[in-house]
């Protein structure tokens, strides 16, 4: 079934539910705002493109999606892929790859591929998620410590020695701002989980940077002011050579968008005891990524952390997601210049927290106690993600996982002896 959930929920919609969705949408927008900026920067894009993605893609994911409470936008899972595509093909290459990924997702939704997520081994998903968390964390060390480094290599093996060689350039005020931001995020999350602690923490430490004129980089000093309006939509430049060159990247973007959105919807189902429509979700992801690319935005998908924030704040219908997109748009239109004061170490700290949460450390003991084959598959996927390539990691991990499943099925069948007739 590909019917959007908003058509179902609107039939019994009430004023009290609108008030709850309104408050939840505002809350999740305050969480999504700094995250969208930080994810865009870590991906090698301009911060404004993160806001465009949250607005445009977030709107269509809520409007057309198969989950009652899904919140969409740019996510940490895309950072590695987006950074690589921009480095190899330029930002226009990323826009075209995102555009193509949107159509791939539409085709997947049409052919009801949403049900196939059950065949992807959970160990593979956990392995590349932890691996992405490791890559995100190391990518933020430069800004976290305020290091002076000319060019930071994307490859992990090359990156760490470069960062270590620049250890004497640490800017201690930047390091202090990053540490205080992390502490504030953790404290506010525990003391006041319903408040937008991410935004409050980043805003407080950024205010300290401006008030005390600390020698710390800000969004404004590095990127200039954010755009105060949405760009004019335009088709990406299409050519056969460019399409064939970027098709592998488009497949990876589509795969990540589909898997993460469906995982997020499944997590949301457990939290609200609901049932999402996987093929409607894939269709929404397709439209959202096409729309995002037309506005020059980044790839988008369902965001697990923002979806959970929406649920905890009282959101129960897609209207909350529409409000979230509208609030970020209002921020862009009215007070975008304020964001130029946000401190880079504070945003780095925010992404380090995000990377830690992505890796789900509370589940590591369960992974270690699980079947040996599952643990090995997780570790292989993790190592390949960090040291080789995300595409290779997914391909190898899924292949090994399916082979293990077939082998197990055959061993079970071979133990059966037909009775004498």
Automatic annotation (TrEMBL):
SLC26A/SulP transporter domain segment(s): 18-381
Record GO cellular component, one term: membrane
Transmembrane listed as a keyword: yes
Main subcellular localisation: membrane
Keyword Transmembrane helix assigned: yes
Listed InterPro entries: SLC26A/SulP_dom, SLC26A/SulP_fam
Intracellular or extracellular location(s): Membrane
Membrane topology designation: Multi-pass membrane protein
Gene Ontology biological-process entries: transmembrane transport
Protein name: SulP family inorganic anion transporter
Organism: Notoacmeibacter ruber
